[in-house]
Amino acid sequence: MQFSVIYSVDTPAGIDVLGHAPPHVHDLWDQTEGDGQFEYGYLEGRWEGGHHRKWCAVLSRGQFDEFIRRCGLTAEDVRTMGSLGAPGVGFGWAPAISFTGDDPDAILSAYVSPLPETRKNELGDSDWERVRDAVLAVYA
Question: Distance between CA atoms of 85 and 117, rounded to whole angstroms?
Answer without folding.
Answer: 19
